[in-house]
């Protein structure tokens, strides 16, 4: 019976069960007498069933009412649509209830759909009431009481024998509970303070095991022999002279960090973080030139073909004038063309190759690879980065991310990297006015766009993906372009850009927009990254309520790049979910990518924000990236110190920790087995 119960919750071992921690606790040590209940408050109370009124026959929609008394007064508990209650509840039973107190038309106090439990005097140790009680996540057919009783037995029987993997010095330095203490307290705490202490200990373990794995990798890679890339720097100097602007001091600082790192005879593992428009591309180009001048090749890897193509276009504008050949290599490029490019890469005639995952595939001879630039966009994982690396002789790696990530996430996702941050925008950027408008205001928005175009500006109209529109009522980009061309802006040139166009066509459209030959660019989200047209001052986003927050932020980053005031119009239709509303609010309130990212994290939750599975990182049992940030910092510091003193955790006092680490990473971490 007990096994069935556990398997229903996907708990295979006793250990799994012990770590099945409650998602909240309820303080039933202080049950409020009925007469002291306050209308509007969420409270716990207990009483005896004095009367039951099930819905009358033939009226299943009427409520099921239970009248309770506790000597101080009466309380009505009310449920709709819960026919099973008739079988469960009986006069004379004692119930514990938890819920919001209400009063309906002057009747007795009520609780609607309260959490409740039938209290049995035979229960051991007053497990279900009169104390702080654990509330577990349930699945169908399970109720709190049997599960709680089971965990009570398991905790009592097995927790004392749980071995603590945390080295004693770490535990006392960080003032953490022993593991068995923490497990007991998280399930059956004596006080609120115990819950906090137990959570802190368990979250610490989650973070420590993650950070240890990352630190071990970093330690190993950082000490592996790598390329010391230190050219004279002529290419970089010529490049900088060719730019129409000077680097910002943030760009200069970051470039210096990268240059110094590349010069070391160890592989660089560096994250380049900066908001959209902060000028990461220029810095990446400098790193590429640095590798090329030293006689190596560079590869830039993007998560999608479209992004790869856009990076290619940017680099084509920057590198060839300096005599550096760039080529694209994606799975879409086939036959003779592919042969030619592979040959060019092999002979070294092509010094910079841009592509997608195809770059990792066999047949690409990147034996002179000196630098890998990865455009991350949250879509690559730690493990994928490692496989591109394996292509060359430990090339340097620079990972770019366009969305500034909250520090806790950065430490998790990129804990194996050093971090460089561009925290300053190029000068002259003017704040973008962001508004949201309902469908009814569409014609006014068009009129405004016309006015901007009359002043010489260009505009974007962004539609959701073409694929999605086939199944839904979304306005397809093609239809939109047609309509704008024929009806709304007959005097303007309207261009169309979407992911299904061939590369050559896309390139032609982007060039024409950049050259000012197109005034209105209708596009799907393909413009999210890479397009750089300072003259564009308005962006109209259709169905803005359907876009994710960081995507909206990335899109908006396409405007406000010139000296003109820029406007982002979020057009919405229909009812917006509360979440959509918060996304739109956040867009209106701030342009700070860091704050946007934090809000995005709060809205979507860490799991969805980066997808642990996809990232290849072990999952947390207890820790919460949003709540437990400070614990993460402590765990990271301890992890670094542990690895510095015992890189493979082979010391006897680290035996249990090593076991826990290997179990948690499930084969994704290979520790040297020698002692
Ligand atoms: P990111 O890749 O970080 O989104 P980009 O590299 O695309 O940003 O740069 C955005 C725009 O800013 C480009 O037009 C670029 O030419 C310009 N830019 C970059 N650095 C500077 C600078 N130091 N001063 C002025 N403009 C700059
Ligand atoms: Mg860019």
Short description:
With 675 residues, the protein is an alpha/beta fold.
**Mean of all residue-level pLDDT scores:** 86
Inertia-based shape: globular
**Assembly type:** single chain
Termini distance? Answer: 45 Å
Order of strands in the sheet with the most strands? 11-12-10-13-14-9-15
The fraction of residues in strands falls at 15-25%
Structural class per helix/strand content? alpha/beta
Task: Write down the Rg.
Answer: 31 Å
| Unreliable parts | 468-474
Number of helical segments? 24
Report the biggest beta sheet as strand number plus sense, adding barrel if it closes: 7 strands, parallel
Could you characterize what this model shows?
By secondary structure, the chain is α/β, with parallel strands linked by helices. Helices cover 40% and strands 18% of the residues. The strands form four sheets. Strands 11-12-10-13-14-9-15 form a seven-stranded parallel beta sheet, sandwiched between helices. A six-stranded parallel beta sheet has the order 16-21-20-17-19-18, sandwiched between helices. Helix 6 (179-187) packs across helix 7, helix 8 (234-242) runs antiparallel to helix 10 (280-293) and helix 20 packs antiparallel against helix 21. The radius of gyration is 31 Å and the shape is globular. Adenosine-5'-diphosphate binds next to helix 10.
